[in-house]
Fold:
Amino acid sequence: MAKLYFYFSAMNAGKTTTLLQSAHNYRERGMRVMILTPALDDRAGSGTVASRIGLKAEGMRFERGDDLKRRVVADIDEYGPLDCVLVDEAQFLSKPQVWQLSEVVDALGIPVLCYGLRTDFRGELFEGSAALLAWADELQEIKTICHTGSKATMTVRVDDAGRAVADGPQVEIGGNERYVSVSRREFKRVMRGEGGVEPQQAPLPL
Structure:
């Protein structure tokens, strides 16, 4: 039976690597997949899904206003049966789009695997993540480690001096130079202004 999955983590935990490995596993068995990637994340180039260890795949760009169930149906009409839908940076989904993906599962019988952040740099849920936490059939955390050695569950946005940023837009695309994954305890410390997050404290690439 098809299910809606949400694989979540803090930054730099290898979410995209896991997505690309899943896509490879399906394709290796002769199965067809669709990779959806938000248009606003163009760090690797428009429509390209890329991990920090060098893996890449072409994805289908989507905007917040797109009907993702219709996109899936149109793809099937053009190219034939689809075995899985994978969504990169799923925190950027809108609430209606998460519902549409649940319809891909329930009405079309196609599993949907979503990969994304749970919370933003203020410790608040993204819209897409909140909807996935509410509606996904299965939730799985992809773990990474804080520089303190504890499990990292939060993400800190930092300025050029390594100081935690407490204000600003929720969405600001960036990588290791702007975001550091930390434990909840460390998140509280740096958000209180009790020292910065030094560049050498940023997680090493997986």
